[in-house]
Amino acid sequence: MQKEIFLKQIILVTDGESNSFKNPINITKKVIKEGITVSTIGILNEKSNTRAKFELESIADIGKGVCELTNIENLSSTVYNTTKKSIYNTLQSVINTELKKVVGSDISNVDPTCRQKVIMMMEDLSDSFDLKTIILLDTSKSMNLKVNAAKKSIINLLNTLKSRKGKNHIAVMIFPYKDKDYKLICDFTDNIRTLKKSLKSIVTQGLTPTGEALENAYIHMKRD
Predict the structure, then answer these.
(1) 20 in helix, strand or coil?
(2) Is the peptide bond prior to 112 cis by the omega test (within 30 degrees of 0)?
(3) Neighbours of 224 (CB within 10 A)
(4) What SUPFAM superfamilies does the database record attribute to this sequence (predicted)?
(5) How many CA atoms are closer than 13 Å to the CA of 160, on its beta-carbon side?
(6) CA 180 to each of CA 31, 176, 190, 192: distance values in angstroms, whole numbers, following the listed order
(7) Rounded to whole angstroms, what are the CA distances from 10 to 42, 58, 222?
(8) What is the pTM of this model?
(9) Where are the alpha helices (DSSP H) in the chain?
């Protein structure tokens, strides 16, 4: 059953609802068809509107990813935990598909001895397959006081992932950028120095064109 797994994921980090022409929920329906997982992290508080929460939860649900709502103080750990959960969910989905082919049942319905072996295999796989992640970072005006914490969380993610056996590459796309909806400021890299240098160029401004940015993150992931 064991085979090489290559996980591609997009993690959207934002503090609010999109306010642009393209609907990010509809874009996500296209993304998941290509086997690219979409997870969301909302930097929200009690004053955040319910539409923002619904949008983030819907994107992650359709994108077969994870939705986490957090505050700025816990952002770094949330970014890592979201990645970890997404990896586990993807593995579980793949293995359940294989189990159904072989024994006609998923992991929840196999006998305890077999289940334990499958779980051990999942733990081993989660550490060994290659991982490509695009961090889609909201840099709209409302993110002004949050963007430094977001930068640190991205750097910490790559540092933490380096303990894995598999290869880890992170790209960063911000939205908006000057008069454009998005900009890829860092292509896929496993180099901390390259990542840090690229993050220095971030400036907060403008609105939140989430749909347009998500669509272009998806196009970039497909192209790579």
Answers:
(1) coil
(2) no
(3) 12
(4) vWA-like
(5) 15
(6) 22, 6, 27, 27
(7) 14, 15, 12
(8) 0.89
(9) 24-33, 50-62, 75-103, 112-128, 147-161, 192-199, 210-223
CA 159 → CA 12, 120, 133, 217, distances in Å? 19, 25, 14, 22
Classify domain 6-223 at the CATH class level: alpha beta
Can you tell me the distance from the alpha carbon of 186 to that of 36, in angstroms, rounded to the nearest whole number? 19
Strand duo 183-189 + 130-138: pairing: unpaired
Instruction: Read off the DSSP letter of residue 134.
Output: E
Q: Give the type of residue at 167.
A: K
Which residues neighbour 45 within 8 Å (Cβ) at sequence distance 6 or greater?
A: 71
Decide: 14 and 208 in contact? Cβ < 8 Å: yes
The Cα–Cα gap between 179 and 59 comes to 26
pLDDT tens per residue across all 224 residues of the chain: 444 456 899 999 999 889 888 999 999 999 999 999 999 999 987 777 789 999 999 999 999 999 999 999 999 999 999 998 988 888 777 777 767 676 666 677 767 777 777 777 777 777 788 999 999 999 999 999 999 999 999 999 999 999 888 899 999 999 999 999 999 999 999 999 999 999 999 999 999 999 999 999 999 998 87
